[in-house]
Design goal:
Number of domains: 2
CATH superfamily of the largest domain: YajQ-like, domain 2
Helix content: 25-40%
CATH architecture of the largest domain: 2-Layer Sandwich
Order of helices and strands: EHEEHEEEHEEHE
CATH class of the largest domain: Alpha Beta
Number of helices: 4
Radius of gyration: 20 Å
CATH topology of the largest domain: Alpha-Beta Plaits
Largest sheet: 5 strands, antiparallel
Shape: elongated
Number of strands: 9
Length: about 160
């Protein structure tokens, strides 16, 4: 039976490339000379550190600009409120969401079912497996999901015949 998976992932290589480009621009920018400003990357988190709120805002704009130019979907980047210390140092975390969370997955499944497509949807390990008897039906589901905005990036993979 034909099937495909609906996933919400950020390409790790493009994320690394965007962070490296942002670090290079940070090193050459005149307004960041002599200022402590860092971009730290952990597994599913990016931490921005700057001397003050203004430089943190500039640092975030540089990174977001590089991410969007590299094709990273910004709907999967969750920005937390900046933490400002009493000395004035600023810190902000950007969380990278990988996979479909429970509520979003249920919302997508309900949307597919409400359209009356003849397919089955299963939530498997933070992705949705959609199976049907006809390829045309599956392609119609993909077109429907592309036309809607669920607040997260939706990608399609493992299209099987």
């Amino acid at each position: 039976m034909p099937s495909f998976d609906v996933v919400s992932e950020v390409d790790k290589q493009e994320l690394d490339n965007a962070i490296n480009q942002a670090r290079k621009e940070l090193a050459t920018r005149f307004d960041f000379k002599g200022i402590t400003a860092e971009i730290l990357q952990e597994k599913d988190k990016i931490t921005l550190i700057a001397d003050d709120v203004g430089h943190l805002r500039g640092l975030r704009e540089i990174l977001i600009g590089k991410l969007s130019k590299r094709g990273v979907d910004l709907r999967n980047i969750e920005q937390e409120e900046p933490a400002i210390s009493s000395v004035g140092h600023a810190r902000q975390e950007l969380k990278i969401r990988q996979g479909l969370e429970g509520n979003k997955a249920k919302e997508i499944i309900q949307a597919i079912k409400s359209q009356g497509f003849r397919v089955q949807c299963q939530l498997q390990d933070r992705q949705i497996r959609v199976t049907g008897k006809k390829k045309d039906e599956l392609q119609a589901v993909i077109q429907f999901l592309r036309s809607r905005d669920f607040g997260v990036a939706t990608n399609f993979k493992n299209f099987r015949d």
